[in-house]
């Protein structure tokens, strides 16, 4: 289950700091009680929370406690659908046969597939940065090679839709994939310090 807090106007300069302080206070105050009522895991990024609860826990009771903490906040919930749940532009997928979770990129239905058009009068560095950022995002989020392959194909499609040369996109994918692979090998070779 995904529980989301909708409280602070996140456009304000200090909003994330204030939200973090407030949510830390909420967690310190309520976590023992929430754990007793069935919360197994609680993950948070600023004011968005991703919560695992026991099957027999009363979700409405948990929400009532969270929403009763302060009159200015409102927690909402989203329950997984077909073993899938979106959280912060990541689609988390429950894999019952492997008893694990997988992740891939989530795009809202309103996503337009628009990038800076290749033919626009924008420096090439900006166009390159746009592709690099979505390739890096795929490398950091996709948990399987199949999801990564699917995401690279989407990036190619978005690029072609915006008049990018396929060779330009594939070169960036190749460079970033090689850098990612080398980074992973380097991390595996590091000695474990005990």
Automatic annotation (TrEMBL):
It holds the Pfam family HTH_animal. Residues 1-123 form the Reverse transcriptase domain. This is Reverse transcriptase domain-containing protein. It comes from Rotaria sordida.
